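Please fill in the sequence for the structure shown.

STRUCTURE ENCODING:
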């Protein structure tokens, strides 16, 4: 295989694919990217960790000799990063070696044959629909912070996508908080299986979306695999296995009868929580909220660091009471609210609280209280 490619093109492509590659691998070829040069002048670069696979097709300056080879992903990425801007990179592979040349630089890297490179067998992907990249990015941002990191509850280690009431719903929970994002069901998504997209796939997808926010993303899926195509023909294709498990019926924990309504500015609320939580320790991450007419008093008491309190103006007309929340969880949710007000629908100190921007907002959050 012999091909020449612009350094900027190679670097951008490698930055997309190399992050899938794990730093430590028991199977040596999983540390490599597969590079395929086609006679037509296209270069296909692929990486996988056996659960997730990313393929990008880019245009080469020239393909002198079609072929395919695998080479260390992180090594080639580091080399491309350090090469001079604007240079052209020559990739020449033969006899278990790849020679990388650019300007006066020359590297000789070990390779492994392409036949040993594993591919994810996708099978049939019967459900197919499109979403604007900007909508998909927003959906991920509004939900992924609530994904559980507990490996024992593996079925919570991703975002749950399902169609209900003619809406596409995405939900994530770790048992302490729940985030749900709802949008009108896209054409082609009706009848899709309920799927859980793993955390790593969500993270890689969000990175890729950043560069194509003005395009549409093609989503194809079956009960066990999902494929995202970004940027059309010369774009990136991300394929992932889905989590094989049953997501709990989260709708049961969304409170419907919470009758105490607190309206507050999310920015000043966030900053107040952040300030009083400064003295909180690992053991006492709880922030106490005392609700009174037209104000909320935030306080934290720590046996080691003393106490802190702050008043935040708010709209509240029900009976006063006190409730505690994990400060970090509360900040995570408030950080997702873009408007000037946020609504907290409360019941009592022991019941889950519903948080949303307003009743028209596509995002909805539920937060379990803490004892304080």
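FILLED IN BY: designer on duty
SEQUENCE:
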């Amino acid at each position: 295989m012999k091909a020449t490619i612009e350094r900027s093109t190679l670097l951008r492509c490698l930055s997309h694919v190399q992050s899938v590659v794990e730093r430590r691998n028991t199977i040596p070829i999983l540390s490599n990217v597969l590079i395929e040069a086609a006679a037509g002048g296209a270069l296909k670069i692929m990486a996988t960790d056996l659960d997730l696979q990313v393929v990008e097709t880019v245009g080469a300056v020239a393909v002198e000799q079609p072929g395919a080879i695998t080479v260390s992903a992180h090594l080639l990425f580091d080399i491309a990063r350090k090469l001079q801007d604007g240079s052209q990179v020559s990739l020449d592979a033969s006899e278990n070696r790849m020679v990388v040349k650019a300007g006066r630089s020359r590297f000789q890297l070990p390779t492994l044959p392409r036949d040993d490179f594993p591919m994810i067998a996708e099978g049939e992907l019967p459900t197919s629909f499109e979403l604007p990249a900007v909508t998909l990015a927003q959906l991920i941002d509004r939900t992924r912070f609530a994904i559980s990191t507990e490996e024992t509850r593996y079925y919570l280690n991703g975002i749950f996508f399902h169609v209900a009431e003619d809406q596409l719903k995405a939900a994530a929970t770790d048992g302490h908080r729940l985030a749900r994002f709802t949008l009108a069901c896209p054409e082609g998504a009706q009848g899709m299986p309920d799927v859980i997209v793993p955390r790593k796939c969500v993270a890689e997808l969000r990175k890729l979306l950043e560069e194509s926010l003005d395009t549409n993303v093609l989503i194809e899926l079956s009960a066990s695999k999902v494929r995202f195509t970004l940027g059309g023909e010369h774009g990136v294709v991300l394929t992932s296995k889905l989590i094989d498990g049953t997501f709990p019926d989260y709708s049961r924990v969304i409170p419907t009868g919470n009758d105490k309504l607190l309206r507050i500015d999310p920015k000043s609320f966030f900053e107040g929580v952040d300030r009083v939580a400064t003295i909180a320790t690992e053991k006492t991450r709880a922030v106490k909220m005392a609700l009174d007419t037209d104000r909320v008093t935030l306080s934290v008491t720590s046996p080691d660091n003393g106490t802190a309190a702050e008043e935040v103006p708010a709209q509240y007309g029900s009976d006063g009471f006190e409730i505690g929340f994990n400060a970090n969880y509360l900040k995570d949710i408030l950080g997702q609210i873009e408007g000037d007000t946020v609504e907290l629908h409360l019941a009592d100190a022991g019941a889950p609280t519903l948080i949303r921007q307003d009743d028209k907002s596509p995002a909805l959050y539920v937060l379990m209280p803490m004892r304080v």
